[in-house]
Each structure stands twice: as structure tokens, then as C-alpha cells.
């Protein structure tokens, strides 16, 4: 059985991060696909919601850009949807994870739901893994591991690097789950991966991220 623990996968994330070139897809990827424009649009969208993402960071300790990128990936940055899975805020979530938020009554505010998601994942200040100096661990390997875990490790069972992280870069590969449990080995992602967005944000000095624990 594969070891998908943070410790086991951290060296892989560090190595792939170095290899990752956002905006440069493999030669066999279908065209047209203006990846750089998609990345620019994604960054602009995440920055537009920064104040609301910072409000969630203030309550949970989760970096605003992590919240923003997950919101982009799960909800296309729509503030009418649960960040957990893209279900409407007018009711508790139906898709996995179902029944969130467990507290409160719908309709939920986006911030209330997002805070619930961070606590549900145990990424909040009370539960988050910490480095030796006591600071919350949002180093690069841990952040990428958490984002892949959010979407699931199923792509690893197919021998494919998850598009949830690497789509829109030279590390993208064909193969996608097009529905729950339905695999298409020829399908390419139409969405930009989280790692590609993070790397461009960091390159533009819009965020700071520690490469690995000191």
C-alpha cells in the first residue's frame, strides 16, 4: 500500500517544484490552450478576493493565498459556494464532505463556511502541524501535500501526477477522473493546477513561502 503521508511525499514535492515551469505544457498536450493567460486570470481573481481570504486567515491561521487558491479550484472563486466542495451556501453540503458546516443554520456566509472547512481539515491554529520553533507548518512540501490531500490521492494509483497541482505546467500529464470513480486516460485538464499558480505568485513576490523546514 502506498505511503501518502506528508513525510514520505515531501521530497517528491520539493523536487517537482524545482522542475515545474508554469505556462509550458508538454508537447503532446492538445492545443490551443493559452496557459499563461489562464494563470494571469487566476492570479487576478485570487487577488480580487484577498480581503475576504485574509478574514479567514485571521480566524484560522491558514494563509490567505491557500484559502484563495482552494476557492479558485473548488468554486471558480464564487462566493456563493462552499469551499469544501462547491455546493451552494443555501444549504449544508451534499457532496463529500456532506453535512458541512455542522453548526449554524443555512444560508451560510462564505466566511463562516470557509472557516468551518479549515477546522474540518484541522489546518486551524488549534490543530495544525507545527515546526520545531512552534510556528504553523505552511512550508512548501506541506502546503502541496495538503492541497493534494484535499482533492485526494487517487491519481497516484494511476501513475499520474495530479492535475490539481501540476496542470498548466510542463509536469502536466493526460488522465483525469471525469466523474466520481470514472477514469479517462486520454483526458487533459482544462483547469490550471494549484502548484502552477503558487509558483507564479511566488515568482512575482506576491506571496512568500518557505521552501522547507529550517
Features:
214 residues; mainly alpha; 9 helices; globular
Give a short overview.
This protein is 43% helix and 3% strand. The chain is mainly α and 214 residues long.
Low-confidence stretches: none
Query: What is the helix/strand order?
Result: HHHHHHHHEEH
State mean pLDDT (0 to 100 scale): 95
What is the CA-based Rg, rounded? 17 Å
Give a quick account of the main beta sheet: strands, pairing sense, barrel closure.
Answer: 2 strands, antiparallel
Describe this structure in words.
- By secondary structure, the chain is mainly alpha-helical.
- It contains nine helices and two strands, in the order ααααααααββα.
- It has a two-stranded antiparallel sheet with strand order 1-2.
- Strand 1 and strand 2 (182-184) form a beta hairpin.
- Helix 2 (35-48) packs across helix 4.
- The longest helix has 14 residues, at 6-19.
- The two termini are 30 Å apart.
- The mean pLDDT is 95.
Amino acid at each position: 500500500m502506498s505511503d501518502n503521508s506528508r513525510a514520505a511525499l515531501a521530497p517528491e514535492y520539493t523536487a517537482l517544484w524545482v522542475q515545474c515551469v508554469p505556462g509550458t505544457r508538454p508537447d503532446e498536450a492538445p492545443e490551443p490552450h493559452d496557459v499563461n493567460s489562464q494563470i494571469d486570470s487566476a492570479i487576478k481573481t485570487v487577488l480580487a478576493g484577498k480581503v475576504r481570504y485574509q478574514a479567514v486567515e485571521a480566524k484560522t491561521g491558514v494563509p490567505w493565498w491557500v484559502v484563495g487558491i482552494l476557492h479558485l479550484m473548488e468554486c471558480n472563486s464564487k462566493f456563493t459556494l462552499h469551499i469544501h466542495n462547491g455546493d451552494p451556501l443555501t444549504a449544508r453540503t451534499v457532496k463529500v464532505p456532506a453535512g458541512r458546516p455542522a453548526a449554524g443554520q443555512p444560508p451560510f456566509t462564505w466566511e463562516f463556511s470557509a472557516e468551518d472547512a479549515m477546522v474540518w481539515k484541522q489546518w486551524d491554529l488549534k490543530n495544525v502541524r507545527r515546526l520545531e520553533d512552534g510556528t504553523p507548518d505552511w512550508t512548501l512540501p506541506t502546503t502541496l501535500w495538503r492541497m493534494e490531500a484535499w482533492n485526494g490521492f487517487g491519481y497516484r494509483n494511476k501513475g499520474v501526477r495530479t492535475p490539481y497541482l501540476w496542470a498548466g505546467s510542463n509536469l502536466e500529464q493526460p488522465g483525469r477522473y471525469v466523474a466520481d470513480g470514472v477514469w479517462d486516460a486520454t483526458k487533459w485538464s482544462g483547469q490550471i493546477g494549484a502548484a502552477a499558480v503558487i509558483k507564479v505568485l511566488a515568482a512575482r513576490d506576491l506571496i512568500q513561502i518557505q521552501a522547507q523546514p529550517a
